[in-house]
Amino acid sequence: MKNFFKNNSSVLIFSLILILVFVFGGIFSRYMTQEKEDFIEDFRSQEEIRIYYESLIELAGKGQTVEVFETEQLTKEYLLPSSETETYQPELNEAYKILADEIEVAVVYVITTHGREAGVKVAYAIDIETKTLIDLKVLSNNETPSFYSNLDDDFFNQLTDKTFDDVVFTIDTVAGATYSSKSFDVGMKYARELFARDFNFEIPNIVYTINSIVRNFDSVTFLTKPYIVNITYGAENNVLEAYFDNEFNYVETITGVEPNQTYKDLFKNDLPATSFIDLKTYITAYDETTRKITIETKGYASKPITVEFELNEALDKVVAMTITTSQTYDEEYNEGYTGAPVPAVENAYKDAYLVDGTYIDAVSSATITSNAMIRIFTLVDDVLTAWNGGGN
User: Fold this and answer.
1) Do residues 142 and 135 make contact, with C-beta atoms less than 8 angstroms apart?
2) Angle in degrees, 0-180, between the axes of helices 344-356 and 367-388, rounded to the nearest 10
């Protein structure tokens, strides 16, 4: 054996060297491959961050650099777009400061709110000096495309160059995309709340109280002056009773002092959110000769339902009605519905009401349409009661 090693030592050493080269070469190769992959991945991440930061600077329209802004969530709840009582907390996902020559010129809050669905994630860029919402960028959403697509340039233009000093700090919603619209309204308001806390900005506020809202049942004036509103406002606690129209515009003072335009704009913005009476349903026409009164409300997807009621000569009972509807209760949100197609639900309510004045229970998977019909019948009964103590 010794002779074998002695005679073949050169071959064995050479073989050992080859083995070591192979083993360590493989290890080194794998190490270098992993290092290369890590470098590429890190480079890719850094490149993505650079592009993202550039998009934030472009959104703000000023500055050269971006730094992460370490700020905290602010506890504040808002009404869910699809509910009159349920609330939710918006989520602050990220925050960044935009700097120009090391001076903070803008801040960007990335906020997730709730539209028809949860998950409307938007970046809101704010000018620190002017306290203005510069612009926004939608990062992601889970909204139904057919509804969300109704949000056009006119809608988003409301959200640019919007001053935080505005007492009436809101935007108009878009028919057919009401829930999606409200997600941006809440996001904008939540961004202002964050900005107020982080940059010592005082949100303007005018104190007033809506004391009551009742319907005007005078057949001569109820089309142009459908609501009678009682409000206490101003430092001197002025009491105002006035008529408002179906769009909640101030029409005429009944008693008190007429408010200035700022208050009128506030009332127009806040009256639709009150819970004194049903403000989704209103009278659109009345013909005294034919004794026909038309009532409209919004049903599924904010699409209208209109009912023309024909009254008896005593004006205390409905004798006939014609329904015009744009409802759809056989789509994805109503997949449990198994009845006949539109207007089966509306007709079921019509038939029951004409027999004895009753409202049937809500139809499964068509509850929004059902509730809309109940609101219409409730209003016509209120009219009949106010006029002659009647009602079917």
Assistant:
1) no
2) 30
* DSSP class of 161: S
Residue pair 297/304 in contact by the 8 Å Cβ criterion = yes
Burial class (CB in 10 A: 0-12, 13-18, 19+), 57: buried
Does 188 share its domain with 114?
yes
Determine which helix (DSSP H) or strand (DSSP E) holds 192, and give its type and residue range. helix 178-198
Query: 37-76: per-residue pLDDT in tens?
Result: 554 455 568 889 999 999 999 999 999 999 999 999 999 9
Phi/psi region, residue 61 (left: phi>0; alpha: psi -120 to 50; beta: rest), is: left
* Same structural domain, 219 and 261: yes
Selection from 363, 362, 392 nearest residue 378 by Cα: 392
Segment 93-114, tens digit of pLDDT: 999 999 999 999 999 999 999 9
The one-letter code for the residue type at 111 is I
How far apart, in whole angstroms, are the C-alpha atoms of residue 377 and residue 301? Answer: 20
With vertex at residue 150, the alpha carbon angle to CA 53 and CA 119, rounded to the nearest 5 degrees, is 50
Judge if 343 and 324 occupy the same domain: yes
Give me the phi and psi of 92, to 5 degrees please: -85, 110
Examine the domain organization and report whether 194 and 70 are in the same domain: yes
What's the helix, strand, coil split of the chain in %, to 5?
35, 30, 35
pLDDT > 90: percent of the chain: 68
Angle at 204 between CA 202 and CA 60, to 5 degrees: 65
- Name the β-bridge partners of 91: 112
CA–CA distance, 213 with 84 (Å, rounded to integer): 17
Q: What angle do CA 192, 196, 198 make, to 5 degrees?
A: 115
Instruction: Please report where in the chains the tokens 């650099």 appear, as a residue.
Output: 65
H or E element, residue 333: none
Domain span at residue 326 reads 282-388
